[in-house]
Design goal:
This protein is mainly α. The chain has 8 helices and 2 strands, in the order H-H-H-H-H-H-E-H-H-E. Helix content is 62%, strand content 6%. Helix 3 packs across helix 5 and helix 5 crosses helix 7.
């Protein structure tokens, strides 16, 4: 490759190769949502999806607080299984849960393509619950791409939906 002379670049005869490389890399880089946006989306999902399920389990299935207190493990299974299924349906269908849609983020794979496959999304959601309980979500504060442990294991990530 011929040597690029500054004078030619300055006069506009040729374009700087470093500038071309920088422009290409800037165009392809996805925007990662901040930790605050991710947490807000989670809280929104908790109120829109999780709370109605919890209410139904507490009062319709378990017969009240006392019934839930007697069978906590079974009660939490009754709560988390429908939550995972409903979240899976939203993610497979649109790539977003209602909270993600409200804050303009979506789930994609590492290449930036929409996540397809019920098994992959199911594993992602189940690992997400485990990740939440084991504080694996704290990785968003230490990684540039703000991926959590369950996103790393399932090769997915959250990006801003433009």
């Amino acid at each position: 490759m011929a040597k690029v002379r500054f004078r030619d670049v300055k006069q506009g005869k040729i374009q700087d190769t470093n500038e071309l490389k920088n422009n290409k890399s800037k165009q392809k880089a996805p925007k990662y949502p901040s930790a605050g946006v991710r947490i807000k989306a989670f809280i929104t999902d908790s109120f829109m999806i999780l709370m109605p399920i919890m209410y139904a389990v507490f009062y319709l299935v378990m017969g009240g607080r006392e019934g839930f207190a007697e069978n906590k493990l079974l009660g939490w299974l009754y709560i988390l299984i429908p939550y995972v299924v409903i979240s899976m349906i939203f993610i497979v269908k649109t790539g977003q849960t209602p909270g993600m849609k409200a804050y303009g983020i979506k789930v994609v794979d590492k290449e930036g393509k929409p996540v397809t496959g019920i098994a992959r999304v199911m594993i992602r959601q189940i690992l997400g619950i485990i990740d939440f309980l084991l504080f694996g979500w704290l990785l968003i504060y230490f990684r540039k791409d703000r991926r959590t442990l369950h996103e790393i294991l399932t090769n997915t990530m959250l990006v801003e939906d433009n």
